[in-house]
Amino acid sequence: MIAKFKPTWMISEIYNISPTKLDDMGIKAVFSDLDNTLIPWNNPDGTPQLRNWIKDLEKNNIKLVVISNNKHSRVKRALKSLKLDFISRSCKPMSRGIKAALKKYNLDRNQVIMVGDQLITDVWASNNAKVRSVLVKPLIESDAWNTKPNRMMETVLWKLLKRKYNDLNWQEDIDDRD
Question: Which of 7, 11, 77, 114 sits CB 3.0–4.6 Å from 31 for a disulfide?
């Protein structure tokens, strides 16, 4: 059961993921959580670093799609200036949102990665959908009220994961392992 929470990669922040490496790996799309992964949960304005990363993805013909548990209006408002596609009410940790995005963009599981800041929603949803996952550190230390219980449960999950797996280390960038 604990394997459901094991990320494929652990990278400090989403902007460290090299679009060139993704392209070399055959990745056609990055699915990303919204809050505290792509943008801080309490600040919808994208940083210059995010905008540059999005441009680099575009140069490598890699699509960025936000997959969020938030309602449509919240995600649309948050992404207005970034003009990104999204799937709202994705029901993570279920795989519904990821599967919907795979179908919508006619992609195979091995052509995408899912990036998120939570084991209980993002990584678990990725593993349920059989998609490689990237766990990132939250952009800011505070969380919305509805995320706080997940963070408490993650403390226990980390202890169990570290006991079972000795390869859980933060990396600078992704590598090509499956």
Answer: 114
